[in-house]
Amino acid sequence: MVSSPTRAAKRVVEVTFLILGSMSVGIISGIGLVLFEASPVEAVGGGAAAFAGAFNVGMKALSYIKRLND
């Protein structure tokens, strides 16, 4: 018998997928900057900024969706 996941478990899964998606955005941004001949420091900084931005937007979207469902 499979029990339904609790709200906390659902939230953990949502945030985990959000982190993975944000990491993908950051890595792709960093690789893109390297392809456009940016220095390694600039590429790491750009990737980190893209990760932070994607994570921030994703968390705000998750909070908004959660608020709509409550």
Show the helix and strand layout:
Blueprint: H1 7-35, H2 40-69
Helix pairs in contact: 1-2
Structural overview:
This protein has helices spanning 7-35, 40-69. By secondary structure, it is mainly alpha-helical. The protein starts with 6 loop residues before the first helix and ends with a helix. The model has no long low-confidence stretch (mean pLDDT 90).
Question: Care to give the gist of this entry?
Answer:
The protein is mainly alpha-helical. It has helices spanning 7-35, 40-69. The protein is elongated.
Number of helices: 2
Morphology call: elongated
Give the helix level as a range of percent.
over 70%
Got a strand count? Answer: 0
Strand content: under 5%
| Mean of all residue-level pLDDT scores | 90
> Termini separation (Å)?
27 Å
Q: How are helices and strands ordered from N to C?
A: HH
Low-confidence stretches: none
Decide which structural class fits the backbone.
Answer: mainly alpha
Sheet bearing the most strands, described? none
Task: Please give the radius of gyration in angstroms.
Answer: 16 Å
Task: Give keywords.
about 70 residues; mainly alpha; about 0% strand; elongated; about 85% helix
